[in-house]
Design a protein that fits this description.
Length: 112
């Protein structure tokens, strides 16, 4: 419902600005200017003043598009990548610099 509400708002703002520009008669390219100005104004107004509606519509769209099922090959790839990343982080150590003695090396703090 949020997508429909936000889309109707943007379309309404566009229509008001578009027909306002047609009424003003902007010269030879009235329709082109009316479309460009209508798009720019509707985007700007909805972005600046209706941010909550835009975010809700985006979340609803993400929910619809995020429901796709992953293939088994994609799941296996993700599992293999996760395993490699975990192995890398387990074996990664601070490199030893031979020019520093043991006393001069900064102590490693445990990660929180």
């Amino acid at each position: 419902m949020a997508v429909l509400k936000y889309s109707a708002l943007r379309l309404g703002i566009f229509a008001v600005v578009f027909f306002g520009c047609l009424y003003i008669d902007l010269g030879r390219f009235t329709i082109i200017f009316a479309v460009i100005i209508g798009l720019a104004v509707s985007w700007t107004v909805s972005y600046l003043f209706f941010n909550n509606w835009r975010v809700a519509a985006g979340e609803q769209l993400a929910g619809w598009l995020g429901r796709r099922r992953r293939s088994t090959a994609e799941e296996e790839d993700n599992a293999a990548e996760d395993e490699l990343a975990e192995q890398y982080h387990e074996t990664a150590e601070e490199p030893v610099r031979p020019d520093l003695d043991q006393q001069e090396r900064p102590e490693r703090r445990p990660e929180e």
